[in-house]
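#random but structural
TW: two for the price of one
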Amino acid sequence: MEELLKYQLWGNTILKYLIALAMFFAGLIIVIVFKKIVLSRLKKWAEKTTTTLDDFIIIGIKKSIVPILYYGSLYLAVTSLVLQPEAKTIINYISIIVLTFFGIKLFTSILDYSITTYTSKEEKSDHRAKQLKSLSAMARFLVWGVGLIFLLDNLGVNISTVVAGLGIGGIAVALAAQAVLGDLFSYFVIFFDRPFELGDFIIVDDKVGTIEHIGIKTTRIRALSGEQIVMSNTDLTGSRVHNYKKLQRRRVVFSLGVIYQTPAEKLKLIPDMVKQVIVENPDAEFDRGHFKNFGDFSLNFEFVYYVLSADYTTYMNIQQNINLEIFEKFEKEGIEFAYPSQTLFLNKEESE
């Protein structure tokens, strides 16, 4: 038996092979115990907490760290043997590939979790979920690209020429697709800064409509007249956007003009009369009302009130009610509205 254990095969005795095998199984047992007992208890504890960070850490350990530990058991067992240089090189290459693969997976998981956590603080929607999916896919593509370059460099591949070629090619592509890349970065600005969202009513320069779709390159707006307006993301982020969804209340200013023949007693009644009309509307808040100035053909009053709603139809309904009630009250009081007119006074000279 002792002679069998001392028998050498490929530079190692049978005893060394058995020790290496024992190290491998011991490592497997440790990892399995860690996975079945420690991680299971941590998972149960994490389910009782309100935060999602601990759940993410446990999932990350299970998907990325545990496979590395399994491979580490095999690596320690194999490297304890006397190996040929070629075999050592192959094992090192395999180790680099395994570590890089699971390292990238762990990094992309952290990236996805960060994006998900950021967006979960905001209002959820199907469109937001699609945006998140596209952004995560682009981020993973970039991470895997960088990881591949890192892997090739560690495998001994001379990537200087490749990187230089990619740099020159990247400059050429960037110049050729400058507008596309500008719109892509503007998409990131819209995604994170959120100046507007799907369904928001906006005004951009002379364009008015509701946001219907936010894409990587363009944003589509449904105009009030029914047609679809397609605008590049760069144009939107570079313009002054009036977003009426953010409107909490609407300030309304309107004027009234009465004729110059109106008695002073009637003029004094007008501010309180209009104020009473506005106050009687439950969704309106009166601000001020004044006899503003003497116009060319009218005595002008200015009134300001707030509509306690962002809805445009609500505002128009309130303004319509105010106009009708003012008209009725003026009619009862005998107050006449002014309109553009001219009065010509003639002096007749009697001939002697």
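TW: number two ↓
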Amino acid sequence: MSHGPLMLDLQGKMLTNEERELLLHPAAGGVILFSRNYESPDQLSRLVSQIHALREPKLFVAVDQEGGRVQRFCQGFTRLPPAAWFGGLYDDDPVFGLQAVQIAGWLMASELLAEGVDFSFAPVLDLGTGVSQVIGNRAFHREPAIVADLAHGWIKGVHAAGMAAVGKHFPGHGNVSEDSHLALPVDKRRREDILMEDLSPFRRLIESGIEAIMPAHVIYEKASPELAGFSHYWLKQVLRGELRFQGVVFSDDLSMTAAAEAGSVTLRARAALEAGCDMILVCNDQNSAVKVLDDLSDYSDPTAQMRLIRMHGRTKLKRGKLRLDKRWKQAVEMVARYERNPTLELDL
């Protein structure tokens, strides 16, 4: 059995019999976990082990563990600063800022891998322009070159722990005010400005080997009439063609309000896959996930299968050994600076 094209979510902290059946469906490829699925590291480890034991190759288990206000697992995990905090460190001392962000990437990945989680949907590569509240301090900085530098440092740490990285939200969500979870964002700027500014961090990280990209649920009206995640122009012409990206393309959640622009959930799923996504996400709507599974029962994309192999978590230290590791202790002390001085993020 190969990886199916759908990543879906779970209702609670343990698998139900119905969810086991859904995850054994040939169109299932992975699970994304949320705060409601988490109680403690022990509980998480048991849940992930149950998911991984269901089939071969193992289903992916992923989470949004960026840090700041987007950290699904908190109690029992190190509290990670928001990305903008590292931008503040960089402004004060670029060398230390880059060291700190690499340590934080390693810490995030090591703690997830210790419980069996394969990857986090991070880092955010959007620009911190102040226009987008939903991005806000999730962005490293407003300057594209600094975003690229800090994200590259974060990814170096993630890779050192044995985890793949996912850059989002291609080609950039930082210059639209609407929240795509709740509305349909439209970027009215010139295509040339988007390519020159917002796309710059993605270009840099693709050149350095990032494994996966997640497109934005945003319409860039002067470049393509479709949302980026449903756009042949953005995914095939720009991402695959001009940027020569060879990794995985994950859709953003197809249940988000902005995605409804593409039609019913099954039409959205087909449109995203046809536009160039390798794996699609349907979250917080199990009925829709079931419809997509049924509609994609016979779907197959051997090229996507080859790309997805790289997303499995690789090396890891179990929790007990990790917390005895000198690197972990040093990393926890470093990010504790955020607890002592969180106001750096307010300057950005």
